[in-house]
Amino acid sequence: MEVYVDDMLVKSKKAPDHVKDLEETFSILRKYKLKLNPGKYAFGVQRGRFLGFMVTQRGIEANPSKIKDIQDMKAPSSINEVQRLTGRMPPSVALYLNLRRKVSLSSKC
């Protein structure tokens, strides 16, 4: 289980373990008298938005609605333009790009 302020994600390596992981999560929530907003949770989804990213069975992907402007813009042609671009990016985009770089590097090793 991963918790981010008021968002939570329960994930399991194997599908049969997921029910057990959910039971454990709900047990912890009950123990501390924490409540969930029924309008915000979903079960058994193949993909969904979480913290501005699309989370799928393959991992974290960029949310298409968040990166459309970046995809449509002209590519920077100088170091100054690259610096200006990265300075204007929200932290979530910078995090995504950094994650992609790490995945790319580790997959080559």
UniProtKB/TrEMBL annotation:
Q: Name all Reverse transcriptase domain ranges.
A: 1-55
Top-rank taxon: Eukaryota
Stated name of the protein: Reverse transcriptase domain-containing protein
What organism is listed for this UniProt entry?
A: Sesamum latifolium
- Organism classification: Eukaryota, Viridiplantae, Streptophyta, Embryophyta, Tracheophyta
